[in-house]
Specification:
single chain; mainly alpha; 13 helices; 70% helix
Length: 218
Amino acid sequence: MVASAVFVVGVAYGAMSVNAGLPTWFAPVVGFFVLAASSEMLFVGLLAGGANSWIAAAAALAVNSRHLPYGLAATDVLGTGWKRYARIHLVNDETVAFAAAQQTPAARRLAYTWSGLGILITWPVGALLGSAIGRMFDVAIIGLDAMFPAVILALIMSGIRDPRTRYGCLAAAVIAVGAALVLPEGIAPVLAVLALPLMRPRPIDPAVDAERAEAEDA
């Protein structure tokens, strides 16, 4: 389901890209190697609005800095050796959210890996299709640009039910919405990480911890 939604958003991204004057290959190639939807769409959106390319790149990098806490949250699913480096490329909003929703290390790693591979395929393929047909329609009018935030909201719902994270999520939302009223586009989501200290880690279950050690060899 999420891979399908990512494909649709990828179509919107590809359409935005070509309508911003970028070549057809840009969105799918960047989509595969960067694999960070929000920062890619922000970059293209700023270019389409007439922003300098350096400013657009700086804003995209600022938004992508959210991957720093994501990486910390995903350390137990990355494994070792070459698999670890391959899985690092899959760190994004959806994969970390899927992993966090699972109860055991093995389940977290499985959810992280397969959701990441699905996104790695559907995001650039959708971007390629959007780049090919993008000049035929306006993505904002038909609502494709709303698909991405809707998917993220659905993914975090299980975490919001946990009292250890609920208040942190609410604080992050307040910070982001408030900052969006006064700061340039793309900066507000980054400031939301200021709420991270409010999110206490779950207590460690010895049985789960033992399974985690066994899963390290996977």
